[in-house]
Amino acid sequence: MTEDSNVVKIGPQPGPQTQFLQSPAQICIYGGSAGSGKSYALLLSTLRHIDNSKFRAIIFRRTSPQITNPGALWDESTKLFGQLDATPYVSRLKWVFNTGASVEFSHLERKDTVLDYQGAQIDHIYLDELNHFEESQFWYMLSRNRSVSGVPSRIRATTNPSSEGFVRELVDWWIDEDGYPIPERSGVIRWFARFHGELHWGDSPEELKRRLAGDEGEDFIDPVSFTFIPASIYDNPVLLEQDKTYLASLKALNRVDRAQLLEGNWNVRADAGTFFRASDFNIATQNPNPRRRVRSWDIAASKDSGDFTVGTLMSTDGTNYYIEDVVRGQFGAGDVEEIIRQREKDGPYKDIFNFVERVNLQTVNKKNIEALAAAGAFDNLGDGKRAPFFAVSDGEDGIFIERLLRYGNRFQADK
Fold this sequence. Notes:
Distance between the termini: 84 Å
Structural class: alpha/beta
Radius of gyration: 30 Å
Number of helices: 14
Oligomer: single chain
Strand content: 15-25%
Helix content: 25-40%
Largest sheet: 10 strands, mixed
Shape: elongated
Strand order of the largest sheet: 5-6-7-4-8-9-3-12-10-11
Order of helices and strands: EEHEHEHHEEEEHEHEEHEHHHEEEHHHH
């Protein structure tokens, strides 16, 4: 944006922003990473038809504060529209240009707020942070996207990546198996039709009509053009120059948030095995000399099935943090209470024999110990292998767990 002889020049940055503004698709989703200039691109897109006195556009966020908070959409619109011949109506969150064209800001806070627009005809609809909206809201507002000004009807949306939800399904063709956008598909237009409650995709409207028309005739099918244009902070050199700390802030995020917000990954999620990995940890070669120890329990009390009870003992020496002990299994309420009581009373179990010496074997029975062994609760009490707990050794009577219980019962009877 430059100013020369009282002429204000406003335009997109080269790359994805320009591609977004030029797209002829009825629906175009832009973004995928934080700091990629998504909101600015939306605001810029509204200016294309302000010379048309009948042009009406509405920019939606899910809640009102997301529009009016300091530095949010309304403030950003003031920076941009304030340079033009336009009048702000703050109480109505609306800009009216000297031609009569208008851009309004609104929310869809409740799921049924869309009904406020029943009967409306809106030339251009903008949805900032599409993942915040309900799927039903998106499809309802699509039905309101009808032009009364002669300009082509358009829906423009921005979003950050999410591995779940309707937005992930919409952009699936543009995303590779590893969760990252496929560069050569950026901006490629496809068509979809919602037919008999299902979403059908095609490479052309004619293909969809031929495939879906059947006895009802091709005129019954009305395909909608759609595309996705990914962008990242590296496509926004203006931001990188203005705020040299923002990129560092994104790099400092945890793995999941960093993969989504900096790298633009659509598959990553904070599930078991993806948030923490064994490679993230070093194995301590000696016992820590802790300043503080804390044990935490996530109690499920779901015997033999359902959620797992997990207990973790952690400590710190002021510099490093140590995981000293973990127990995990599907237990009944009484079993959980007994294990917790023993841990609190005498500290971590030294080995598997110490475990059966200490717990009440009338409460914690063979089935419980089998579940603990299978779940890996005893991995830190031996060599980390689970199969030996269920093995039968030559000349021995029963599997190791049965022999272990006999030992525990004898030990407790002799006390």
